[in-house]
TrEMBL record, chain A:
PANTHER family: ARABINOSE-BINDING PROTEIN-RELATED, OSMOPROTECTIVE COMPOUNDS-BINDING PROTEIN GGTB. InterPro entries: Bact_solute-bd_prot1 (IPR050490), SBP (IPR006059). Residues 1-18 form the signal peptide. This is Carbohydrate ABC transporter substrate-binding protein. SUPFAM superfamilies: Periplasmic binding protein-like II. It comes from the Bacteria.
Automatic annotation (TrEMBL), chain B:
Belongs to the binding-protein-dependent transport system permease family. This is ABC transporter permease subunit. PANTHER family: BLL4140 PROTEIN, DIACETYLCHITOBIOSE UPTAKE SYSTEM PERMEASE PROTEIN DASB. GO terms for biological process: carbohydrate metabolic process; transmembrane transport. GO terms for cellular component: plasma membrane. It is a multi-pass membrane protein. It comes from Nonomuraea deserti. Keywords: Cell membrane, Membrane, Transmembrane, Transmembrane helix, Transport. It comes from the Bacteria. InterPro entries: Ig-like_fold, MetI-like, MetI-like_sf, UgpAE/MalFG_permease. CDD domains: TM_PBP2 (cd06261). Residues 94-449 form the ABC transmembrane type-1 domain.
Length: 440, 458
């Protein structure tokens, strides 16, 4: 999610400036439209809505097509506003100014709680909640809730349980995509023996390490412990954490497994570690989410041929599926806003979106057959088949001082662990100390 | 100029103190020549108002805010200040600031002095000064980006390591197979021993020795390497060193398969009782044999020199060297500035003092040491104090140059202040406390500067 801090900051500044400039122009209050919107009877004729999300470029165009489908169905006119990378910096002033968009799409569920505390969100009405109950597992409903009220619906997912590999490197070493952890370690050893370092870790981008930990932890400790650890209900000194770290130890403690050694790994940030696999072809695997495809493509590797992936192998009993994603919330209590959320949460809305590229739905009733390419179909399939055990990116659920800051919290401790993977207990204690500071 | 050297983020106490207190007081001591107090106040009011809004109020509010917790509602007294001195991470930032303050101003002033004295004597002095001064025209952020590239680990990208490796390779170069190693596990007939590869069992003449090696980088395999052959039993001690990996997989471990290549150019030693009895070099198919070796059992060893990695330079951006590396970038930016100021001071030194010393028989070094430097000391002090203030608030260079994974090791107070306030922690109470701490650190040097301005005015 966080690609480049500096870029994000610049974008944030730009957005802040832009927000000052155009905030009051777009929306008019939407008082009309009384009946809840169902069916294609254009009950919301004449209603205007504003929806704000971080998407730009192709992602924005695709989303606008979904909005158009909504307009065709209900007659409501929807305008789109881009928040830029830093959604908080865009929404904050508009909430303060009493002029929020009707619907906002938040990049982190943590923001749902934050805005709910500020009374900036409107609870979803029964029609939307009914839609969520039909299409989502209870976990997602809870994720969009704060203080026992449902505020948000997860409408777009990023799949974080993937291991990308360079097919040529695997062929040279004569190994197949592994299906469990031991096979992964064995395959890594074989690839290393063939003269190619197996792993390219993005040591400078702490969030990639948290993603690795989350997958291993979800698989070894199971979803219940995952939820507890997400909320810091069990301490990081718990034995389940030790097990996960010991598993990670197996792939990070061997010198020949890391491309450019430990020192080089620690200086490699996110897109660079992908280009070490697909650009300069120095390594064989990179463990990250579906959006690696974009970077692999930019490094000149054809996704699906040269750049392939396998689902994150089972480490324990659970096949891990960790998602990131965007939550849609209503910021104005208008029937139009509720109707739009209901549409986005529905099978119908999800399928319109699923036919467009670059989208993955967390909606269990959106059939993977809708996706335009084979790759996305497989990804969608893993989400559907994981069912109730799908979990949201843990570090994005934590306070950002713990799970989202360079040089602090979980990022720092995991980086220290990657630098010196011998001391599991010390890493656990450091994690617990940081967590205590962040959760107090 | 003053604004430029103190930078935009300064608590502008010197800007405030210098012009406003100085001239305002002087007229009052003498007979009143200036305007009436009412007019004076009217004229001072705009400045006072702006200073109040932009300087006094933020400082007072920061002090106030630093006494509250993250939410801004809970009063914690001096709790935030205790946190500064009890948190290991923050203590590192203080330690780093200390290194900065001790090292950077001295280095900048010294280099500036050397450049200034030298440029006095060369022909293209102006051109030289211009070049040294040029980095001042680059913003610190851009300088950070430049030095991030200079310090890149890979010699292909990073200038610093490219220079180091070039110099190093002029004197010695590696011809071996870096990162190649024996296969792990019990089945392998050879094992790693302190970087060298040795046979686990002593070898006898007549029994061919197998030395399987894995992890050879494909690009390092010489083009003339031939497929390895299983060694035939001969008279002397002989064997094969080969890359025990069949491309595409499928080979038998620790056995010479058809497609596997020998590793030519390996140095092989026959060792007996810790003494090297004979040395051989592998042929293109990886085979070796020791001629004229007395019978007996030997340990066959591939010394570590076969596996030495090419010198890759230093980890500039690693945890140990990061602060010196960033100080290097800082010196690059500010040395020119110091040089120009000192050169100006140098031009103002009375020539006759230097002449007199020379006539009295002083050597050039003595002239420099006893005449030039003492006469220059006021200017040196200005440069020095300015640099101290600059180093205390250093932020952008650290933020840009240090990769995220070594940010905790490179961190400084100003950066930590920003991070805890806005960079995720959102604890503006602690952030304000750090700001006040920084203000207190800068204050003595500010006062020094103001005093000096006053002295110069009177």
């Amino acid at each position: 999610m966080r690609r480049s801090r500096a870029a994000a900051i610049l974008a944030g500044l730009a957005v802040a400036v832009a927000a000052c400039g155009n905030a009051p122009t777009t929306t008019e209050p939407t008082a009309s439209g009384s009946a809840p919107a169902t069916g294609g009877d254009k009950t919301l004729e004449g209603v205007t809505l504003e929806v704000a999300a971080k998407w730009t470029g192709a992602e924005q165009k695709n989303f606008e097509q979904v909005l158009k489908a909504f307009t065709d169905k209900t007659g409501a006119k929807v305008t789109y506003a881009s928040t830029g990378e830093d959604t908080g910096a865009y929404l904050g002033p508009r909430i303060q100014g009493g002029n929020p968009p009707d619907v906002a799409i938040l990049p982190q569920p943590g923001l749902v709680q934050q805005y709910a505390d500020q009374d900036a969100l409107k609870p979803l009405n029964d029609a939307v909640i009914k839609e969520i109950d039909t299409n989502y597992t209870p976990y997602w409903k809870e994720l969009g809730s704060a203080d026992d009220k449902v505020y948000g619906v997860l409408i777009k997912a990023a799949h974080k349980s993937l291991v990308w590999y360079r097919s040529q490197a695997f062929e040279d070493a004569g190994v197949q995509a592994p299906t469990n952890w031991d096979e992964l370690v064995k395959a890594a050893q074989t690839v290393a023996d063939s003269g190619t370092p197996p792993f390219s870790f993005c040591g400078a981008s702490g969030w990639t390490l948290t993603d690795l930990f989350e997958n291993v932890y979800l698989s070894t400790a199971g979803p219940e412990n995952y939820d507890k650890l997400s909320k810091h209900e069990i301490p990081w000194t718990d034995p389940t954490v030790a097990t996960a770290l010991e598993k990670i130890q197996q792939i990070v403690s061997k010198k020949e497994f890391l491309v450019d050694g430990v020192s080089g790994t620690m200086q490699t940030d996110f897109p660079t570690c992908v280009s070490k696999v697909y650009g300069t072809k120095k390594a064989a695997m990179v463990i990250e989410a579906d959006f690696v495809a974009v970077e692999a493509d930019q490094s000149g590797a054809k996704v699906g041929e040269e750049a392939k992936y396998f689902p994150f192998p089972k480490v324990g009993d659970t096949a891990p599926v960790v998602l990131g994603g965007d939550v849609a919330v209503a910021m104005k209590d208008s029937p139009g806003a509720m109707a739009l959320l209901q549409f986005l949460a529905s099978k119908e809305g999800g399928e319109v979106w699923a036919k467009l590229p670059g989208y993955l739905s967390p909606n269990k009733n959106v059939s993977p057959d809708n996706y335009p390419d084979e790759l996305t179909k497989q990804l969608g399939q893993t989400i559907v088949s994981a069912g109730d055990t799908v979990r949201y990116d843990m570090s994005d659920l934590a306070p950002s001082a713990f799970g989202g800051t360079d040089g602090k919290g979980e990022w720092k401790v995991l980086q220290d662990f990657l630098r010196d993977p011998t001391d599991v207990k010390g890493a656990q204690e450091a994690l617990e100390a940081e967590a205590k500071k962040a959760w107090k | 100029m003053t604004e430029r050297l103190d930078g935009p983020q300064d608590p502008p106490a010197d800007v405030a103190g210098g012009p406003s207190t100085g001239p305002a007081e002087t007229p009052q001591r003498k007979r009143r020549l200036g305007p009436s107090p009412a007019v004076a106040i009217a004229f001072l009011l705009p400045a006072a108002l702006l200073l109040g809004i932009w300087v006094i109020y933020p400082i007072v509010y920061s002090v106030f805010r630093s006494l509250f917790d993250a939410t801004g509602t809970g009063f914690v007294g001096l709790g935030n200040y205790t946190t500064i001195f009890s948190d290991a991470g923050t203590l590192t930032t203080i330690r780093n600031n200390l290194i900065w303050v001790v090292v950077a101003p001295i280095v900048v002033t010294t280099i500036g002095l050397i450049f200034a004295v030298l440029t006095e004597r060369i022909r293209w002095a102006t051109a030289f000064k211009l070049i040294v001064f040029m980095p001042m025209a680059v913003s610190l952020m851009a300088a950070g980006v430049i030095f991030r590239l200079v310090y890149e680990e890979s010699p292909d990208k990073g200038l610093a390591n490219a220079v180091l490796t070039t110099v190093h390779d002029t004197f010695s170069s590696s011809q071996g197979y870096p990162e190649a190693r024996p296969r792990g596990g019990d089945q392998s007939p050879v094992a790693d021993q302190g970087g060298a590869v040795v046979t686990k069992q002593p070898a006898q003449a007549g029994q061919p020795v197998l030395v399987p090696i894995v992890g050879v980088k494909p690009e390092l395999l010489p083009g003339d390497a031939q497929p390895a052959k299983a060694p035939a039993a001969g008279d002397g001690l002989s064997g094969t060193v080969w890359f025990d990996f069949t491309p595409g997989g499928g080979g038998t471990n620790n056995a010479v398969d058809g497609a596997e290549k020998g590793l030519p150019g390996m140095t092989v030693e026959a060792v007996r009782d810790g003494q090297v009895a004979a040395t051989a070099t592998t042929a293109e198919d990886g085979s070796f044999s020791f001629a004229g070796l007395p019978a007996g059992s030997y340990v066959v060893r591939l010394p570590a020199s076969n596996f030495e990695a090419a010198y890759g330079g230093l980890s500039w951006l690693g945890p140990t060297l990061i602060t010196p590396a960033i100080i290097g970038a800082f010196v690059w930016v500010w040395a020119g500035f110091a040089m120009v100021l000192i050169a100006a001071g140098l031009a103002a030194i009375p020539r006759d003092a230097l002449e007199a010393a020379r006539i009295d028989g002083a050597t050039e070094w003595q002239v420099f040491r006893r005449i030039t430097v003492p006469l220059l000391s006021p200017v040196l002090l200005v440069v020095f104090v300015t640099m101290i203030i600059n180093t205390l608030k250093v932020f952008d260079l650290v933020f840009i140059i240090a990769p995220a994974s070594v940010q905790p090791q490179a961190n400084v107070v100003a950066l930590e202040m920003w991070r805890v306030s806005f960079g995720g922690g959102n604890n503006q109470g602690l952030g304000s406390a750090l700001a006040i701490f920084l203000l207190i650190l800068v204050l003595p040097f500010m006062i020094m500067n103001i005093r000096r301005f006053r002295r110069e005015d009177t």
